[in-house]
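We were asked to recover a plausible sequence for a given structure. The inputs and outputs are reproduced exactly as logged, with field labels preserved.

PROBLEM: sequence recovery
POSITIONS: 328
GIVEN STRUCTURE:
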């Protein structure tokens, strides 16, 4: 006797066993700094615009394909039970049935600290499922995506720095409002931003989520180096999140001019806290979709990052002292 309620013809399912604890695997699905490192099929990269992991919350992201096309995506969370289960609806703002489906992901403890992951994609019809397979390669894409997750977890030993961002803090003798202005106003930023000995010779600044800061730094020898920020989140006086990369004079993303294996893009988070009239600035840099060579280069150059940011902070401190004096 056939089961009239069977959904097998409109499902795509997968089961994977990961050599990692359940809490970590769950975090890989629910924290932006992790999921951008592996989400999507091989040769795709993902950029997140916002991620609010709670029932009713939304994750909006863009998948950059090898064909040069940017695929807009929207996920709406239905159920979130940490670290056991995620249920979400996948679909954009347009009611196009073939690309709207529901996903259930469960995370189960196994022996020796391992995790069994079950994933079920349920489509409204068999026709919709087949459309997504034929047009977008959803079945193959799922296999590749989970393989990327497995590789990412394998590179995250408990004693490894491979997944740890670079973090540096400095406290400045200046109120937070002034420090914030130094980071967000064009004319102020030109007076201090860059490693010690570098000056900013050009900058365009569009301070808003999705906006771009494109700038040029001139070295002591007269050489020029371009870079850019693509802003993701701006919380006035508190936090700035942006994607940081090297660039050319036209604003195209490029590799580091002196280190071709430096990560192409970095997720940068800058926070500002004030106490007793002084402001602490904390910088966090995390790699985005790094290759193994880029990961190795990043981890081998933490001292260089520390030196570069320390010099930048020296220039900021000098600017703030001058700005405070001029205000009097």
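RECOVERED SEQUENCE:
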């Amino acid at each position: 006797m056939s089961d009239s309620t069977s959904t097998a013809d409109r499902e795509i399912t997968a089961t994977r066993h990961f050599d990692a604890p359940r809490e970590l695997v769950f975090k890989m699905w629910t924290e932006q700094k992790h999921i951008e490192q592996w989400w999507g099929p091989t040769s795709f990269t993902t950029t997140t615009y916002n991620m609010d992991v709670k029932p009713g919350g939304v994750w909006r992201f863009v998948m950059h394909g090898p064909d040069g096309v940017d695929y807009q995506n929207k996920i709406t969370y239905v159920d979130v039970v940490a670290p056991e289960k995620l249920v979400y609806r996948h679909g954009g703002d347009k009611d196009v049935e073939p690309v709207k489906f529901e996903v259930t992901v469960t995370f189960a403890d196994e022996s020796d600290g391992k995790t069994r992951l079950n994933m079920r994609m349920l489509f409204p019809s068999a026709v919709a499922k087949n459309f997504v397979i034929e047009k977008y390669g959803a079945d193959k894409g799922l296999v590749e995506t989970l393989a990327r997750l497995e590789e990412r977890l394998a590179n995250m030993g408990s004693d490894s720095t491979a997944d740890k961002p670079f973090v540096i803090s400095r406290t400045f003798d200046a109120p937070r409002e002034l420090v914030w202005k130094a980071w967000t106003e064009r004319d102020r930023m030109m007076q201090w931003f860059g490693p010690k000995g570098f000056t900013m010779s050009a900058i365009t600044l569009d301070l808003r989520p999705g906006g771009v800061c494109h700038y040029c730094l001139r070295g002591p020898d007269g050489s020029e180096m371009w870079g850019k920020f693509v802003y993701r989140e701006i919380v006035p006086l508190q936090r700035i999140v942006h994607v940081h990369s090297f660039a050319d004079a036209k604003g195209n993303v490029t590799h580091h001019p002196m280190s071709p294996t430096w990560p192409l893009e970095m997720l940068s988070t800058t926070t500002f806290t004030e106490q007793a009239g002084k402001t602490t600035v904390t910088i966090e840099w995390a790699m985005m979709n790094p290759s193994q060579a880029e990961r190795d280069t990043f981890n081998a150059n933490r001292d260089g990052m520390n030196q570069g940011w320390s010099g930048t902070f020296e220039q900021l401190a000098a600017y703030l002292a001058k700005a405070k004096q001029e205000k009097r």
